[in-house]
UniProtKB/TrEMBL annotation:
Secretion signal span: none
Record domain FAD/NAD(P)-binding: where: 26-307
Domain BFD-like [2Fe-2S]-binding: 438-486
Transmembrane parts of this sequence: 500-520, 540-557, 578-597, 603-625, 646-667
Family: Belongs to the nitrite and sulfite reductase 4Fe-4S domain family.
Pathway: Nitrogen metabolism; nitrate reduction (assimilation)
Protein name listed in UniProt: FAD-dependent oxidoreductase
Cofactors demanded by this protein: siroheme; [4Fe-4S] cluster
Region ranges (Disordered): 1-20
Annotated keywords: Heme, Iron, Iron-sulfur, Membrane, Metal-binding, Oxidoreductase, Transmembrane, Transmembrane helix
SUPFAM superfamilies: FAD/NAD(P)-binding domain
Length: 668
């Protein structure tokens, strides 16, 4: 199983006893995103130190933040890869499947579960978190899953594809993303939460908008009653709630929070609270040991996001390397904002800033388009915002909250009327923003840093990501990075969207032609005979076009098997959608050749109309599918679902009608 999950192997060598070399050794325990960031910074800030990274998972380092997009089939395994960028023969050694079990603080040595020893001069603990499992009966049943690691995600992918009723417990960001990613056409997903979704951060009305959007995706929401037990004979079969009510289920996914991994720190006597207690340089109670990321507790706070971890890594590594390199102005860690941005395709949703200092609130809502925007102000200063549905001012708004910008009364009136805070003409592209403009919120990468990297020859989004880290976390700044590079905006949701849109529109035009054009005339004399008529009236050519049409129908039917039969899961579904739409368009062209714009009579007329209706609905589904990720309007998005259902219903009648048509041609 481990082999199946392995990301490409790491080329890094091992460092056995580096203190012999006379260079300092900096060890990092934990190869999650924050541990990897530390290793990168240590190599960068120290010109000579050896860096050793230990991870206990079987895979090479990966980006945990992107797991929900991987589960939702929006990213491939390779997209998760999160290596330390260094020369193969560098001062770096990385180890997977190596769990550190003991820290001998007196001799400054790490000991792993296999007895291996690693001396260190400075140690960074980046052990992250573990899923918090509720203390109720049944959590150890075989089909109860956590959602934290790549291995968990692989298990959930198998579960998602097996068409069952899946109950996701917990409606925080993780639960919402998991439920949306697990929903397929064939399964049923229920999101169960004892409290409000996103812990009430959206407010009642915002929660209702998000709930509607989730319902439109097909996820059922059930809030209120706490879960009391998971019941079943070896496997989870039923959820029992505190009020005695029950719900049957085939599998349970626990998204019930996390708990900092502090066992290693505790066992060697470091001061711990809920996390490992640190000062503003992320130093623990032992001056040679630092703690960063989700395992660290700073000023009585534990952050459950990656951006604070990156900021802590910056302060910690600058402090460790302060003597080896002249770092200009190393800054201590002072705490981080905790904005939330959900990564659910089709449902942009974010909570920006806080509500602590908020004195007034302004709301814009558009029920039809599923838009909800709430602005929090302290005096005239914007201190926070919540939005559900697309908001093209969101980036600028984030910057305004971070800078503590003020707004005038006219802007607020416009906001309540139109949902816009700034005049449209005042809104400018990324190129017109100042260098300080923050493009990647997760990694704190400004437009200025990106421009510097571009001027140093980084010309693709991937090169820019490697140079600056922009886009390496949630990827939502991808379109801005692309705009800076004059590259096409990445299609974050569906591949071939444009191709499918064009093919679908061409198909709709062909259908209109087939219906509106007068039937092709029969030549009245041999002189007026023209080539096309051979196609329409010559028996041989009629058979060629007829069987080609039949082959197109069979091919599209076979393609749809891919969705239903797991063994046929080759390639990404979007490639097959594109092939399906091209074959559908080709079938229409062949239909025109076969019929010569004649609709036929009796059952042939029924066949023709059924075929045209099926292709019309198919083409409409194509249009809605291709445009879906531009739309936030829930009702518009519902169209795709309904047209798909009509499309399938029409297709069911086709085999019998085609069978009759062929029989009629040959035998009557
Ligand atoms: C599905 C999902 C989606 C998320 N989405 C977002 C998001 O959109 N935005 C956001 O900001 N955050 C998000 N998060 C949270 C984010 O992933 C974490 O904040 C981040 O991973 C914390 O990084 P870390 O390095 O501190 O810890 P972790 O990522 O937990 O990494 C710690 C690593 O250390 C290893 N380890 C622990 N103990 C030992 C030991 N003794 N020896 C060796 N190795 C050890 C662990 O196995 C683990 O691999 C998401 C999390 C999940 C699960």
């Amino acid at each position: 199983m481990a082999d199946e999950l392995e990301l490409p192997a790491s080329p890094h060598r091992s460092i056995n006893n580096p203190t012999d070399s006379g260079y300092p050794v900096y060890a990092v325990v934990g190869n999650g995103p924050v541990g990897i960031r530390c290793a990168q910074k240590l190599l960068e800030y120290s010109g000579r130190a050896q860096v050793v990274v230990f991870g206990d998972e079987a895979t090479n380092p990966y980006n945990r933040v992107k797991l929900s997009q991987y589960l939702a089939d929006q990213l491939s395994l390779a997209d998760l890869d999160n290596p330390v960028h260094s020369d193969p023969d560098s001062r770096l050694a990385t180890f997977n499947s190596r769990r550190i079990s003991t820290i001998d603080r007196e001799n400054r040595v790490l000991i792993d579960t296999g007895g291996g020893r690693q001396p260190y001069d400075k140690l960074i603990l980046a052990t992250g978190s573990e899923p918090a499992v509720p203390d109720i009966p049944g959590v150890d049943l075989s089909n109860v899953y956590p959602f934290r690691s790549l291995r968990d995600t692989e298990a959930l992918i198998r579960l998602r594809d097996s068409d069952r009723h899946i109950c996701v417990i917990g409606a925080g960001a993780l639960g919402l993303e998991a439920a949306a990613a697990l929903k397929t056409r064939g399964n049923r997903v229920t999101l169960q939460s004892r409290g409000q979704i996103l812990g009430g951060l959206l407010g009642d009305e915002g929660a209702e908008y998000l709930q509607n959007a989730m319902t439109a995706l097909g996820v059922e929401l059930r809030t209120g009653e706490p879960l009391a037990a998971i019941e079943g004979d070896g496997r989870a079969e039923r959820l029992r709630f505190a009020d005695g009510g029950t719900m049957t289920t085939d599998a349970v996914v626990l998204c019930t929070g996390i708990r900092p991994a502090v066992t290693l720190a505790e066992s060697c006597g470091l001061e711990t609270g809920r996390g490992i207690v640190t000062d503003e340089w992320m130093r623990t109670s032992d001056p040679h040991i630092y703690a960063v990321g989700e395992c660290a507790e700073f000023a009585r706070r534990i952050y459950q996001f990656v951006r604070p971890g990156y900021e802590q890594a910056e302060a910690c590594c600058a402090h460790i390397c302060r003597e080896t390199r002249d770092l200009s102005d190393p800054r201590p860690y002072r705490g981080s904002p905790t904005d939330i941005q959900l990564k659910i395709a089709h449902i942009p949703c974010a909570v920006i800033g806080g509500e602590e200092n908020s004195q007034q609130q302004y709301v814009y809502r558009n029920r039809f388009r599923g838009l909800y925007r709430l602005l929090r102000l302290s005096g005239q200063r914007i201190v926070g915002a919540v939005y559900i549905g697309n908001w093209d001012e969101a980036n600028r708004l984030r910057q305004a909250v971070a800078d503590g910008d003020t707004v005038i009364g006219r802007a607020l009136q416009r906001f309540e009327r139109e949902g816009r805070l700034w005049e449209k003409r005042a809104e400018r592209g990324i190129k017109a923003q100042p260098d300080s403009y923050l493009v990647c919120q997760c990694n704190n990468v400004s437009k200025g840093e990106l421009c510097r990297a571009i001027s140093q020859g980084k010309r693709t989004p991937m090169e820019l990501q490697q140079a600056t880290n922009a886009g390496s976390v949630c990827g939502s700044c991808g379109p801005l990075v692309a705009e800076l590079l004059d590259a096409p905006a990445p299609n974050l949701v569906m591949r071939h969207a444009r191709g499918i849109l064009v093919t679908s529109i061409i198909s709709l035009l062909l259908i209109a032609l087939a219906l509106l054009m007068p039937p092709a005339p029969v030549s009245e004399s041999v002189q007026s005979h023209w080539y096309w008529q051979e196609l329409w009236y010559d028996n041989f050519w009629k058979q060629v076009s007829g069987y080609t049409l039949l082959a197109c129908c069979l091919l599209t039917a076979t393609l749809s098997l891919r969705k239903r039969w797991r063994r046929l899961h080759y390639g990404h579904v979007d490639h097959w959608r594109y092939v399906h739409s091209v074959i559908g368009g080709a079938a229409l062209a062949v239909l025109v050749v076969h019929t010569g714009f004649r609709l036929g009579e009796n059952l042939n007329l029924v066949l023709m109309l059924d075929f045209l209706a099926a292709t019309t609905t198919g083409a409409l589904v194509g249009v809605f599918m291709a445009r879906n990720h531009h739309w936030t309007d829930i009702k518009l998005r519902e169209h795709r679902k309904w047209w798909s259902r009509v499309h399938y219903a029409l297709l069911w009648a086709m085999p019998a009608l085609i069978g009759y048509h062929i029989l009629a041609v040959y035998y009557f």
